[in-house]
TrEMBL record:
This is Glutathione S-transferase. Residues 84-204 form the GST C-terminal domain. The keyword Transferase applies. InterPro entries: Glutathione-S-Trfase_C-like, Glutathione-S-Trfase_C_sf, Glutathione_S-Trfase, Glutathione_S-Trfase_N, GST_C, Thioredoxin-like_sf.
């Protein structure tokens, strides 16, 4: 099994989950300027990370699809709780929210020129995005009121949340009024699997 990644991107979530699972795997770091290369586009026609190549050469793209595949491929890792219908629904609820709502909201911060051609408007775009992300993280903070993990058990959603919180802290999004998110981040950062993934990506 091989994970194609760029350090610190959402592919870090997949890297963490692979560490939690404990299966043998390889990684290949992709340079940003190689994402549109013919070689990489043969593997992932969208030219993005992550990409997962299984042992038989089968390739899967899209972060949430990969996270769910790993959860199903290795049920013994316990990342699906009891693997009941509602346990899986909770995991997917939070994966969907983080991917479709929160992750997407970072767009004006990561690539402001895509949203406005005038550089003089970029600071305002970024500030509006910070406010939007802080708002979107509110339901996640509330979800952690009476639990340590988003789905009620450690799951791929927690790995994805950790990545998003890293971005938030790096880009000046104030989490001072979100102590449960701060506690979740600290809990994840202390996790041995998370530490191994961070080290492997050169982030620690």
């Amino acid at each position: 099994m091989k994970l194609y990644f760029i350090p610190g991107t959402c592919s870090l979530a997949d890297h963490i989950v692979l560490e939690w699972i404990g299966c043998p795997y390889d990684t290949r770091q992709v340079a940003r300027d190689a994402l549109r290369s013919p070689e990489y586009l043969k593997i992932n026609p969208a030219g993005v990370v992550p990409t997962l190549e299984d042992d038989d050469g089968w390739v899967l793209t899209e972060n949430v699809a990969i996270l769910n595949y790993l959860l199903d491929r290795f049920p013994e890792a316990g990342l699906g709780g009891d693997n009941g219908l509602r346990d899986r629904a909770e995991t997917n609820r939070w994966l969907a929210y983080l991917n479709s709502d929160v992750h997407k909201a970072f767009g004006p911060i990561f690539s402001p020129a895509r949203f406005h051609p005038d550089p003089s408007q970029h600071d305002a775009l970024k500030q509006a995005a910070r406010a939007r992300i802080a708002l979107l993280l509110g339901p996640v903070e509330s979800r952690l009121t009476d639990r340590d993990w988003l789905a009620g058990h450690r799951s791929p959603a927690d790995a994805y949340l950790f990545v998003i919180l890293r971005w938030a802290m790096a880009h000046g999004i104030d989490l001072a009024d979100k102590p449960r998110l701060q506690a979740h981040f600290a809990r994840m950062k202390a996790d041995a699997g998370v530490q191994r993934a961070l080290k492997a990506q050169g982030l620690e």
